[in-house]
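Reading a protein record of the kind used here takes little practice once its layout is understood. Each number in the token line that follows is a code from a learned vocabulary of backbone shapes. One such record is shown here in full, so that the layout can be seen directly:
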Amino acid sequence: MSDTEERKKKKKTSALGGVFLLFLVFGGLVFLPTSMILCIGMLPSIVALLTSSIVTRSRVSTIAALNFVGCVPFVFELWSLGNDFETSFEIITEPLTIIIIYGTAALGYIFDWVVVGVVSAYLYQRSEARLKAINKRQEQLVEAWGEKVKGKFQTKKSQN
């Protein structure tokens, strides 16, 4: 990819990001009570995003998904009670609301931790089984063809 093509791609990406940000700000102003609940409720996801590296972006999506699930019932409650700033403030200042919302974000951290551990253990066991199978096959080949099959023999060049 040439340098000019990369610049065009970055410019297009930044333009899309600017349009998205504009819609996000405009939507936040129009739906201010809902935005207030979501901004305060999604703080664990924002912190996870800001503190994560590119390698751990799957963690951010796990946390954000469960964090959003924790916010949804309170957004629905707000919408059913009138979608005004006072109701939004009452909902978000209730301690049980914060406990539930941040608790679901904590479940995201726990799910990520458990899944990474389980997958790591599975991959380790699979690689160990594969290594045993390779060693067994190598022993069979050594019996049939001799030690030269292993590739651990001296050539004429290395003897000199």
Notes: The chain has one domain: 31-147. Helices lie at 3-30, 32-41, 43-51, 57-81, 85-92, 95-145, 156-159.
